[in-house]
Amino acid sequence: MKKTNYVNILFALSLTLSIVPSVAHSENAIRSDRPETTVLKYVPTEKEIQVPPGLTEPFFVPFAGSSPNDPYFKEFKQKWFPHFALVSPTGKVIDQQESLAYPGYMSPLQDGYGFFHIITFYGNSSFIIFDQQGNTQELGAYNNYFTQIDGEWFLYSPTSYTSYLYNARTKTSKQITDEELFTIPSEYTGATTFDIQHYPFVKRNVKDGMVLSYKFGLKDMNGKIHAKPFFDEYMGYSEGLHRVKINGMTHFITHEGKVVLKPSRNYKVESNFHSSVFIVSGKKDKEEFFLLMNKKGTFASKKYAFLKETSDGQFIAVSKTKDGYFFQKINAMDKPTTTLSYKLDKPEQLKQLKQTGKLFHTDTQIIADVANKQPFPFPHKLLTPPRKETVSMEYTVGGKKYIGTFTHDGTKIYARELK
Fold it and tell me: What is residue 36's predicted lDDT score, i.e. its pLDDT?
């Protein structure tokens, strides 16, 4: 047997025996428990990071673990990407990504907790959970199976065919049984929201070892069944209601499984409840449109070219006019909450449009801040979606390329030339 096989087996055994965080760190020191790698010498120093007053949450700064001109990327036809270091609100470098063959996911804070991917080792990965103060915990996951499902609750698989719920506040784990089923979303984003006390489980109809059919129900952390299995697909939870599918149609149900709303087949449900309304889409003359719908199943807004929820309980609404596409914020009653509308120059980016903190942005570009000012007048592209208070980008000034981190009003926190 090859030496690498022995290493893989030993690593898998160590993960099997360790289903709680292996290390907890304070903001005062970069970890010293992992072997030093060449990437560490590129980690930003605290002297380079100038934190302005007023920041309230940890943020990420980019660094080049290797040069974009490294022959490795050309040889294997890979696109260069930066690594990131986690920095506390006081400017302390807490942790950093190390050996990654592809960009690692960095989660925003959700109810006081976030996480990011730091290392991949023989097909297994490590993730850091961090809180608003900058305290961290590390978890090992099999083959990147890791996601945040509800604030302090995380879902991960320490080994193949095992799944655990982990509570970052109490530092306790609970194994998921075969009938309790969670889908770990792609890119670890936690896009499907859950109520941790009423989560889905599956009941399978099995004959001769073959699964003939299955249905989902809802149960709590103590194993009590609140809704017997009757729906086909779980879509998410918000504001006391679960979004599920039955026979291909979206239904909103209570914890006990009572159907309270079944929107028409003429419309596609695009979101969970958000400030007592949700987004639906439809088509007329092959052109897609979006509306808000309330709990009575009646429309709560006019038609828009696109609608997207924001974190403050409102919506970005895009309107199509003879002069192009314009967007502004509206509330759940379809009333504008921004005084000016902003033009969207690239219609193909319509469905990428989001708001984070003060910034309106797509996946790659800052469009404007909420005062309709452009805080970044130089050419730039986003390295990750903005955080609540900061944004990391690659940008060009005076013909030179840099990577750096800024506040939303354009104050530079950190920058390095990209060579």
Answer: 45
